[in-house]
Amino acid sequence: MSFLFRSTLALVLTMASLHASILPEAAKIDDILAKDWEKRELKPNPIAPDEVFLRRVYVDVAGRIPTLDEAKAFLSSQDPNKRMKLIDQLLSSDGYASNYFNYFADILRLLTKGRDGIAGQAYADWLKTSLRENKHYDVMVKELLTTDGAAWDSGAIGFYTRDRGMPLDHLAATVQVFLGTRIECAQCHNHPFDKWTQMDYYQMAAFTYGMDTRNYGIDPKKMFGTVDRKNTEARKAYQEVREVLGEVMKPLRYTAISPNGKLPQLPHDYQYDDAKPKQTIEPKTMFGHEVVAKEGQTMLQGFGDWMTSPDNPRFTTVIANRLWKRVMGMGLMEPVDEITDSTVASNPELMSYLEKLMIAKNYNLKSYLRVLLNSDVYQRMPSQKDVDLGEEYFFTGPLMRRMSAEQIWDSVVTLLVGNVDTRAAEPDAQSAARLAALETLHDSIAGKTGDELLAAVRAANDGEASERERQIKALTAEMRTAKDGNDPDKARTIARQIAQLQRGSKGDAFVTILGTEGAQTFQTMMRDAGKSDKKSSAKNIGAAQVSMSKEEIRKMMDEGMDKKEIRAKVEEMKKVAKAAGSISSAVRASELESPAPRGHFLRTFGQSDRETIENANGEAAVPQALKMLNGPVASALMNPITQFSQSLAAADSDTKKADAIYLSLLTRLPTRNERQILDQVAAERGADAPSDIVHALLNTSEFLFVR
Known about the structure:
Elements: H1 3-16, H2 24-40, H3 50-62, H4 68-76, H5 82-91, H6 94-107, H7 117-132, H8 137-146, E1 149-150, H9 158-161, H10 167-179, H11 198-208, E2 211-212, H12 220-224, H13 232-249, E3 256-259, H14 299-308, H15 313-328, H16 348-360, H17 365-374, E4 401-402, H18 405-417, H19 429-446, H20 450-484, H21 488-502, H22 509-529, H23 537-546, H24 550-558, H25 563-584, H26 601-604, H27 622-630, H28 633-637, H29 643-650, H30 654-666, H31 672-685, H32 689-698, H33 701-704, E5 705-706
Antiparallel strand pairs: 1-3, 2-3, 4-5
Helix pairs in contact: 2-16, 3-5, 5-17, 6-7, 8-14, 10-11, 13-20, 13-22, 15-16, 15-17, 19-22, 20-21, 23-25, 29-30, 30-32, 31-32
């Protein structure tokens, strides 16, 4: 190696250490990388200036660009430790929970609508709360694997209900997410490219196979015990209760899980000589030590301990590598979830250190990320190269990459309404209300004995029978009158009513089981849960602005405004009110339906459909360009009610307006060359210049990419 290269590298590394007081663990990362650069004769990227670091760390941690005030405060600070302090501030913010909710929701294929229903939203709220409270990763995973019961007890049951009815597929996803290994091929045959056999697959599946995701949290059989099938009266009584109970329990469907003790059976066409087709398979781990349940533990709880143990190297490696990729743009091992025994990290020493670091931090994700973010390598200028599949990268700086769909959306929302972190990652109030209502329903049913339920059903049936007889008698007389009056249509209608009554009725099932007061309580709770609690103050303000008194109209006329001008003023107010309504609903991606509906901005920019693990797409596409070029984003930002527009209104010169635009959108001031262009635009376009500049900057890679 040449003397000149060594001298240059030494100078760069010395200058790099001047950017801030660095954490010892972060310095260790930089030392390991420096040795690798020296061996490969690579030159590290220079340390990024404050404006580049500022925007990057906000997007990577809080999932959004900084506000204008946040940018000004940081860039004007002379505190030598301001980078470290900002990292700590962002990791403590609700923006972190919102951003990493989006990240883990993609990995876990989390759905809040459709087939997952209430359990899906409870799952989302559990994940948000876990991240906001900084629940350690191993604790989170153990809860996902072992929690049972109802959704109102723990939303973690959503991990299983996500794949309800598909326990074998669920196992493949579990191994891919937490152990970084693709074994789905082994469900049908021995893996063609790895060591896993079909037997390995079924043995692993046996740990989680018995989690019943289709129950209601209540088992009528336990209420009545074993029904003697030869006892016709007992069997009839049980059936009466079951029919009515089935109606009442419908809202509880798929809201609970419980272990049922079932084990998987090999398929009928199993072709290997280590077992027979349809043989029942006992649980066994794929690698490492065997699972031995401790005293008082179930085998599933023992499996949770095995999965999350520091002695399970894959578990630690996968999460350490995933988070490295999250902030650096690429994993030390790629793909992050296709690791085999032959996979070698691009820097084995660094990968080993990160594994030890994760264990030392007790799987505290914030603490681990704090080290990565404080490293010199993270705070260097980005590398703009495209790394092809199979190609190694040696981290002379983070890779430049496009913001995720959620980060782009959240950045636009920040421009519209300012700091949105305080509204982020809160549990869904409507979901909580529904869960409370369902818990009330569950407890009301579960609190009754089989005999009490039978007595209630029979009493209701007896009452209904008497009432039906009275109604049938009255309708029969009415039908005769219709016939005598030569009104066959009315007679036929009444005849159908009589026939319906004669077939009997289950009556109000909820009143039968819960009683009048209990049924009313449940129905009121469900009705209240359906009401939106997200009232928009901005929308109310907008509505008030549309209302114009006669005095205000008279005043405008006195000032010389004609009716046409006044009507134009009212229309403008209506537009502001409409914008206020839409802006008030501009909330972070984590607070929206997950994933967003097709056609939504988020889906256009590649948000995952959650069908497969990490299915988001960061590639550019024509619909994205059209959305930014012709869509409503630029015009929405220029609406007078937005935070962005108000900051422009406060700027009293063209130069200050340009500064506000650049700081708001790009987190930097214009360059000298850009100022010359901006001056020309201001001279030519006048009042329209700010809108033109905003439209142009929104469509630059500098706005859309993490540098």
